[in-house]
Amino acid sequence: MTEISKRFGIIGVGGYVAPRHLRAIYDNGGKLVCALDLHDCVGVLDRYFPNAEFFTKQADFIRYAQANHLDFLSICTPNFLHFSHIALALELGANAICEKPLVLRTSELATLQSLESTLSTQAHFARVYGILQLRLHPQILALKQQIHDELALNPTHCYALSLRYISARGKWYHTSWKGDMQKSGGIVCNIGVHLFDMLAFVFGDFMGNTLTYYDDKRASGVASFAHAQVKWLLSIDRDDMDSGKLGTKTSRALRILEETSPPPCDRAALSVDFSSGFEDLHTASYKEILQGRGFDLAAQQQAITIIESITKQALATNTARL
Q1: To the nearest whole percent, how much of the chain has pLDDT over 70?
Q2: pTM for the full model?
């Protein structure tokens, strides 16, 4: 018997990250039934699903989705809209697959957990899944196994680490919703949420953070985890790239380095650069979801707690600059 393709809708199909979701749906044998975006220039649909219905008004999209069952609703909208669009998916009886950060506040996460439970029945259980793609990155999985093995030999060890993530952005960034801290959560949410989730995934529960600097281009601090103290820097300033050259091809740079001794292993072995390897992680994330192993609401708790903690510290400075 031929397996029936899962039926997908997508909101925010004209956005930057949407092509990764479209490819993930396509590569996993899904069928995109309908798409929504305020902007009508969405030629990317022709690459994967030219026959998908397209809407520019949410009311029209909702009416269509109500009349045409969706198994999943993929959400690629600005951060501040994630909560309402996830709630919409659940109300439509569809599983939600949402880009990171899933939401901006732990209170919203709790509300979604309640809504997910309330709207579920014995006949139908719609769930919420987030994209935490670094948990599927081969180098991160290898690092997690290495740390697990080392801690088995020295359970009380606390690593002293340095993390840098530079992802250059142009002037457009600051005039878009991404540059509005109330809408995006700021730089920590825009480029840092998956990194902090990765740190908790590898080094254990988040214990706290001390913010040392924050502005609209750069943030830094010291975050504590069960088995690590991490000096971190996030930046969208091209001048912070290792080369500092305008034409550099490297848009991301991240390294994790053991800084103190004696660790339970060779110091050099804990140097990891995973600036690449992101290309297929959305497809891998969708595969996990379709096989019942996706990252659900409970899995999002650490990441949302961390970004909320850092954002509150930044806002407490009034000017968001330390």
Answers
A1: 84
A2: 0.90
